[in-house]
Structure formats: C-alpha cells, structure tokens
Amino acid sequence: MRKMKDSGIAPNVVTYGTLIDGFFKCQGQEAALDVYRDMLHEGVEANNFIVDSLVNGLRKNGNIEEAEALFKDMGERGLLLDHVNYATLMDGLFKTGNMPAALKVGQELMERNLSPDAVVYNVFINCLCRLGKFSEAKSFLKEMRNTGLEPDQATYNTMISAQCREGNTSKALKLLNEMKWSSIKPNLITYTTLVVGLLEAGVVEKAKYLLNEMASAGFTPTPLTYRRVLQACSGSRSPYVILEVHELMMGAGLHADITVYNTLVHVLCCHGMTRKATIVLDEMLGRGIAPDTITFNALILGHCKSSHLDNAFATYAQMLHQGLSPNIATFNTLLGGLESAGRIGEADTVICEMKKMGLEPNNLTYDILVTGYAKKSNKVEALRLYCEMVSKGFIPKASTYNSLISDFAKAGMMNQAKELFSEMKRRGVLHTSSTYDILLNGWSKLRNGTEVRILLKDMKELGFKPSKGTISSMSRAFSKPGMTWEARRLLKTLFKV
Questions:
Q1: Model confidence over 390-402: pLDDT tens digits?
Q2: Residue 270: exposure state from Cβ atoms within 10 A (0-12, 13-18, ≥19)
Q3: CA-CA distance, 371 to 382, in Å (whole number)?
C-alpha cells in the first residue's frame, strides 16, 4: 500500500477491505485497526464488507464491546447497514453470551424493515431457545416459513438441542419428525444431540433405536460423539447399558483407538465398575492397543471409588512395570483414596514417591492432605500443610476450610475456627451453608448466643437456612434452664422453623 501511495495511486475501499480482512485472519488485530484508521484519515468511507470484517475480527479476538461501538459508529456515519451486518453482530453477541443485546440488535433490524435471511432467523431462534423462550422460537420458525424461507439443519438442531437441555425429549423427538416431514435430513449433530438427551433422561431404548438409525443413515460416530454419548448413558449406572451403547457405536463404524477405550474405561471406573473396566483393558490389549497413563489413572480411580485401595496401589505398580510415567493426577487419585479410607497417615509415602518422580504438589494435592489430616483431628499437620499451601499461592477450596473449621469446632476451639472463617473471606473463598452449620453447632455447644445471632443474621442475608441437625443442636443447647427464651428468640425471629 505504501508503494501504491508513493506511486501516486490512492488505495480504494476494496484495497482497504482486503487488508483489514487479511490482517484479522492472520491474528493482526492492531494492524487491521491501523489500516481502518488510515482509511478514515484518507477520507475513504467503509462499506458493508469492511463492517463484517471488523465486527467478526473484533469478536473473535474477544472485543465484542468494541465491535458493538464500531457498528453503531458506522450507522451514525450514514452507512446503510444491511441484514448481513446485523446478523454478524447478533451472532457475535450471542456467542459471547449476551442474548438480550443480540435480540435488541435483531429488533432494530426488524424495525428498519430489512429483509432477514435464514441466517438471521437462525440466530434469532438460537437466542430465544437459549433464553428458554420456546414458544417465541416456534413463532419465528413459522414466520420464517411465511416469508418463503425454509429452515435448515442448523435451525432444527438448535431447537432440538434446547429441548433436550430442558429434558423435554418428547418435544425434541416431535421436532425430529417435523424435520423429516420437511425433507430436511438429520445430520450427525442432530442424532448426537438427541441420543445424549434421551440417555440423560433415561430413555435408553429410544436412544439405542436412534443410534441404529444413525448408522443406517451412514453416519460414523466421531470420538467426540462417542465421549458425549457414553458420558450421558453413564447416568444409568448400569455397565450393561454403557457396554451395549459402546458396541452399537463400534458397529456404526467408530474407529477404536486409545482415546475411545480411555473414555470407556474412565466412564466405567467413575461409577465403580472396575471389573468391567478390567475386561475392557483385556479387549484393548487383544486389539493391539497399549494402555497409557490415562488408562491406568482411570483404573486407579475406579479401585479407589470401590474402596479397594490395595488394588489401586497394585495397578500403580503395574503401570510402573509397563514403563509408563505417572502424573500428578495419578498421585492425587491415590491420595484421595487414602483420605476417603481414613488412611491419610500413609500419605507421606505417596508424597515421597511423587517428589522422587520430579512432581510437586498442586492445589488439589494440598486440598486432599489438609482435609485428610483435619478429619483425623491432626491439627498440627493440617495447619502446617495449610500454611505451606497458602505460602505457595494456592487457595484452599471451601470444603477444605470447612474440614479445618470443623476440627477446631469439635474441640471447642471456636476462636481459632472463627479466625479461619475470617481467613476464608479474606482469600475470596465463599462461605457455604455447611460452613455456617459447623460454626453454629460449635458456638451452640458453648451456649454463645451472641455469636449464634450474628451467624444466623448472616445466613438469612445470604439466603441460607440452618440444617435440621443444626436446629436440633441449637434447640438442645439453648433449652437448658434459663436459656429457653434465648432459643425461641434465636430461631423464631429469624427463621420460620
């Protein structure tokens, strides 16, 4: 462009548009905006193509507010924005989660009497479905047809997905039938969405029927489809359903690789179905697919969930024997198993092994250790690890704080518990209803009505209510001779219990 200017040739709007679009496609946002500013400086007015390039480019770089402002500026400059420009901005706003703003842009489009195309209607329908306004979305579908536009796969997939998200599988199936009657062929996305929705709703037989229909239509499941479907059917907690769906998808032409098998093993192990997962491991080996660290991590998790810790450590040993390197997830799973089994005292061995492998504890490691030692009332070790954790910049989870607070509360050390409660707030960790229950129980045992009233007031403001167990504990504590009035005042003035 510099050579053009040096030669006395003034770049026109096409030159500028090509450069702006090209820079955005090459991740050169600043360069694209520099060209746009240069264009305005030279007195060249933007066209609709440039509007699209700028809005799309800014949106993809996470600058939707700037895109919105630029769009408005273009209109104020007198550029006649078309329905494509509006659709681009609507889609950008929708994809950043700003549905109300997207609908507002759409309403402006309608008010300007611009003729929307199928893309605009699809964005409208998508926004309305995301907002749960299904009847309005249906009205737009009807209006779309009345204007002579035909809905496409994207239109129906959007509506089917929205109904499945809400658990309305019967309405989703009606949309599938409507789609077929309109001679619109379902695609892989349609089938995947419906199968996942049906499995999540427990409608297993219909889901299996659609998997067979999908295969008959010539669609081959991808590993992503497989993972989504398997995770959905895992809600049945039946290994037979999971394995049957696996076989159906293999029959539909799914290429069995390490990713597919790892998904199956993980889903089975997450539900404690480790025996079935071990059979799958044998099947893998029979197909010549060697297990990797992810496979063994899943098996270790399965054994830990089934409280078979010895098997978990045996699987870890087998992993090492096969020359595989454990990762931080491996050790965190083993530590989590020890914590759940009340065997946190054995954690030192695992930590030493972990460090020997060149791995350092992460946030989750510390959460497990602090929780485990707190549950065992080992305050010294729990606090030592807590201090080490925060000194490294890690933030404990609310459940970790709750374990520490509970340990002190059980010992009647309420000032220390209160300090941890304050520490939570300072570190930006939100108090949970359980946090308040723990403290209420602790202060009630000490019959400290002042602290209990403060906590009850806080709970009410946050929309929390004490659990039945906490209410019983407070009632017992404050119904002692001379405390009955205090009990009535604490409970009845703040909560209808």
A1: 999 999 999 999 9
A2: middle
A3: 7
pLDDT digits (tens, 9 = 90+) for 14-36: 877 788 878 877 767 888 888 87
Intervals of CATH 1.25.40.10 along the chain? 256-346
The answer to whether the CB of 252 falls within 8 A of the CB of 215 is yes
Q: What's the 3-state SS for the chain?
A: CHHHHHCCCCCCHHHHHHHHHHHHHCCCHHHHHHHHHHHHHCCCCCCHHHHHHHHHHHHHCCCHHHHHHHHHHHHHCCCCCCHHHHHHHHHHHHHCCCHHHHHHHHHHHHHCCCCCCHHHHHHHHHHHHHCCCHHHHHHHHHHHHHCCCCCCHHHHHHHHHHHHHCCCHHHHHHHHHHHHHCCCCCCHHHHHHHHHHHHHCCCHHHHHHHHHHHHHCCCCCCHHHHHHHHHHHHHHCCHHHHHHHHHHHHHCCCCCCHHHHHHHHHHHHHCCCHHHHHHHHHHHHHCCCCCCHHHHHHHHHHHHHCCCHHHHHHHHHHHHHCCCCCCHHHHHHHHHHHHHCCCHHHHHHHHHHHHHCCCCCCHHHHHHHHHHHHHCCCHHHHHHHHHHHHHCCCCCCHHHHHHHHHHHHHCCCHHHHHHHHHHHHHCCCCCCHHHHHHHHHHHHHCCCHHHHHHHHHHHHHHCCCCCHHHHHHHHHHHCCCCCHHHHHHHHHCCCCC
Please give the pLDDT value at position 237: 61
CA 247 to chain centre: 28
> What CATH number does domain 256-346 carry, 1.25.40.10, 1.10.8.10, 2.40.100.10, 3.30.70.940?
1.25.40.10
Give residues with Cβ within 8 angstroms of 372, minimum separation 6: 335, 338, 339, 344, 347
Reported pTM: 0.74
Is there a contact between 186 and 202 (Cβ–Cβ < 8 Å)?
A: no
Cβ-count burial 62-94 (b if 16+ within 10 Å, e if not): ebbebbbebbeebeeeebebbbebbbbbbbbbb
Residue of 347, 298, 348 whose CA lies nearest to 326: 298
Contact present, 232 and 194 (Cβ < 8 Å): no
